[in-house]
Amino acid sequence: MKKIASLLFAALVASSFGASVQAANYQFDTKGAHAFVQFRIKHLGYSWLYGRFDKFDGNFVYDEAKPEASSVQVTVDTTSLNSNHAERDKHLRGEDFLNVAKFPTATFKSTSFTPNGDGKATLKGDLTLHGVTKPITIDVEEIGGGKDPWGGYRQGFTGKTEFKLKDFGIDYDLGPASQTVEMILDVEGIRQ
Amino acid sequence: MQTRNSNTHYGWVAVFFHWLMAPAIIGMFALGWWMVGLGYYDPWYRQGPDIHKSVGILLLILLVARLLWRFLNVSPDQEPAPRWQQRAAGAAHGVIYLLLIAISITGYLISTADGRAIEVFNWFSVPATLQGLENQEDIAGAIHEWLAWTLMGLVLLHGLAAFKHHFVNKDNTLRKMLGLGAKQVP
């Protein structure tokens, strides 16, 4: 009995030691553009309009052995909004929408990461957009991870969330079908 | 009425340019100011900017023709006034022309920032040239707006000065631009 207990204790120490070794900080591969912050919103209810933010940065802490301890933070340069149409981008960056002159950055800081055990997880955190901070939930899926061909180590995820523009104080009326915007987030982090 | 300007008169071409463009320019300011506040479901949400861009290109073409005509013609002598007023009037006219050119170009740079052409009333299109600068549409847009307000300030001054000449000095400044002859001196 004593033996079993000490074995269990040793295993616990080993696993927590192993976990602390593997917990690593990953920097988004924005340099190689293997990370994307995209959004989509319905146009009139007839089609999806896609846009993205070209400039952002972030990092995450991830430990394969202890994924629930993961965390992530992202900073987005809102002036880099790009929807492939200059006149629309100007409107979206203006006072009717993101008001980037006043709110040039948006941030996300995670508060919890709950793996479901099937490669999927629920990421909760605070999104600050348009000067408003609100909790959001991102559905995360682990895509893959491992060594890259150039001597590095990478880990990649995709995430999806949605929120009402009004919740973040953006109340320009785009019509009843266009109240909610979806965010599609893809990141590949390089272990530091 | 003569075609060309003389030392005492504006010819009809100069008068025509002035009175065709003056209301169009003021109208463009009003349209521009109004259209950026329109809701997405307003029928003018698309039409307003389409007209604004089309008229803007046509006005730039007219402006080039007008400036050419101005340089190919004499300008009537200024009415007697203190030297500083005559110089200020000349400077104001020059600045108005420069503002019109700059407003036209910045407007063009907004709409063509992504490489799209400007369609002029489905009649012809003006292709993009300078494009893809960092936040080009935002910077060009801010300059476009500020210059437009500056222009309207000068237009107001210009109009007030014309009325002052007409009603206070009772000279021929406004009469000349209306294509009228010198006032009969009894």
Describe this structure in words.
- By secondary structure, chain A is α+β, with helices and mostly antiparallel strands.
- Chain A has helices spanning 2-22, 86-93; strands spanning 24-28, 35-43, 47-53, 56-62, 71-77, 81-82, 105-115, 120-129, 132-147, 153-164, 180-191.
- Chain A has an eight-stranded antiparallel barrel.
- In chain A, strand 4 and strand 5 (71-77) form a beta hairpin.
- Chain A is globular, with a radius of gyration of 20 Å.
- Mean pLDDT of chain A is 91; it is low at 13-20.
- Chain B has a single domain (12-177), classed as Fumarate Reductase Cytochrome B subunit (Up-down Bundle).
- By secondary structure, chain B is mostly helical.
- Chain B is built from five helices and two strands.
- In chain B, strand 1 (118-120) and strand 2 form a beta hairpin.
- Chain B has a two-stranded antiparallel ribbon with strand order 1-2.
What is the structure about, briefly put?
The complex is a heterodimer of chains A (192) and B (186). With 192 residues, chain A is α+β, with helices and mostly antiparallel strands. Helix content of chain A is 15%, strand content 51%.
> What's the total number of strands of chain A?
11
Tell me the Rg of chain A in angstroms. Answer: 20 Å
Structural class of chain B: mainly alpha
Question: Main β-sheet of chain B: number of strands, strand sense, barrel status?
Answer: 2 strands, antiparallel
The dominant shape of chain B is elongated
Number of domains of chain B: 1
The order of strands across the largest sheet of chain A is 1-4-5-7-8-9-10-11
Task: Tell me the quaternary state.
Answer: heterodimer
Q: Strand-residue fraction of chain A?
A: over 45%
CATH class of chain A: Mainly Beta
Helix content of chain B: 55-70%
Tally of helical runs of chain B: 5
